[in-house]
Specification:
The protein is of the alpha+beta class and 353 residues long. The chain has 2 domains: 174 residues; 171 residues, 2-Layer Sandwich (Beta Polymerase, domain 2). Strands 2, 3, 4, 5, 6, 7, 8 and 9 form an 8-stranded mixed beta sheet that branches. A 5-stranded antiparallel beta sheet has the order 1-13-12-11-10, with helices on one face. β10 and β11 form a beta hairpin. α6 runs antiparallel to α7. The radius of gyration is 22 Å and the shape is globular.
């Protein structure tokens, strides 16, 4: 038995980063996402391309480096992209636009094509790619109109700026990124998937977002209904992105911040309202979740248990590691690495046995 003197927060940071490394996309998976994205661009741009296609670029988690293995049943991951269309605003209904894009992509090889309410999904083995059609609008960079249509149900348009949100998030979380703007070309412009960063290259805020997303995914794996959207969590995490001495302090503060945001709305008997800061008058990030006060109360309760529960980090289990943390702000932590060792963290010392 080796007894080593070390502050528990340092041990916890090491363990948290180890978990974060396990939930990152493998390099081969990131390469696969890049290839699928490039394949879509080439497919749409074949034979010189259709002049209706203007530009394609990543949005969401892939755009900010927060993608994780997202489906617990098979650990499938996804990539979201925006396809800018050069068409007259107001000339086509949402159903017409989505049905048309569905037909355009219907012959894409080696995948299942599914029309969703706001995008067309290309389902590949181990991953899927969502293509969201949009029309560029006058105003701030890349403010766009997107389309919502459920056949024989409802349809409407929304003004949004997913590119602006990604740039805002990266700036808020101090992630270094290339701000060089691409010029429109004769052919449809394609903006690359960002290069993959290692955990050590990511900010604490970005790691916290990934850990919270993994916890949420496991928590909601067997629940009915929608789960809290990643972009909503990203907005709230970025709002609280600042210096913390350790990753543990950052995660503690981020979970408390999330809990307060949902709890404050709940005690006022109101649904939380979260907007894209680069399109604050129109782009409501909480437009489809929470569906009702019960869903909001449930998540606020979940966050309270994560912040103060007796086994909060059971939900961050991944692979052969189980991280059972007795309260983020507690005094003891037990980590079991199957086949290797058990680590028990207590104030000022820990033991490997």
């Amino acid at each position: 038995m080796n007894a080593l003197s070390k502050h528990p927060s340092e041990v916890s940071d090491f363990l948290l980063r180890d978990i974060a490394k396990k939930i990152q996309l493998k390099p081969a998976e990131h390469d696969l996402a890049e290839r699928r994205y490039d394949d879509v661009y080439k497919f749409l741009n074949k034979d010189g391309g259709n002049p209706i296609y203007r530009r394609i670029y990543p949005q969401g988690s892939m755009a900010v480096g927060a993608t994780i293995a997202s489906k617990l049943s098979d650990d499938e991951f996804d990539i979201d992209v925006v396809l800018e269309l050069h068409i007259d605003d107001g000339r086509y209904t949402p159903q017409m636009v989505l049905d048309w894009l569905h037909r355009e992509l219907s012959s894409f090889p080696s995948c299942k094509i599914v029309r969703q309410s706001r995008c067309i999904t290309l389902e590949f083995p181990k991953m899927h790619l969502d293509v969201t059609p949009a029309i560029l609008l006058p105003g701030p960079d890349r403010t766009s109109r997107i389309f919502h249509s459920k056949p024989a149900c409802e349809e409407y348009t929304r003004i949004a700026n997913p590119w602006g949100f990604a740039e805002w998030f990266k700036d808020k979380t101090d992630r270094r990124h290339d701000q060089t703007q691409r010029l429109f070309a004769k052919d449809m412009a394609s903006e690359p998937v960002p290069e993959q960063q290692t955990v050590d290259e990511k900010s604490n805020a970005l790691i916290c977002l990934q850990l919270v997303k993994r916890w949420r995914n496991i928590l909601y794996d067997n629940r009915n209904g929608r789960k809290p959207p990643s972009i909503l969590l990203a907005k709230l995490v970025a709002d609280n992105a600042r210096y913390f001495p350790t990753l543990l302090d950052a995660l503690d503060a981020q979970v408390a911040h999330l809990r307060k945001a949902f709890y404050d709305a709940w005690i006022q008997d109101q649904l939380i309202q979260v907007y894209n800061p680069t399109c604050p008058e129109h782009d409501k990030l909480s437009d489809r979740w929470p569906e009702d006060l019960n869903a909001q109360e449930q998540f606020a309760t979940d966050l309270a248990q994560l912040n103060y529960g007796d086994s909060a980090f059971n939900y961050l289990n991944y692979g052969d590691s189980a991280f059972n943390y007795l309260g983020i702000t507690g005094t003891k932590c037990t980590v079991t690495v199957i086949g290797k060792c058990t680590v028990t963290v207590i104030p000022r010392t820990f033991e490997l046995r």
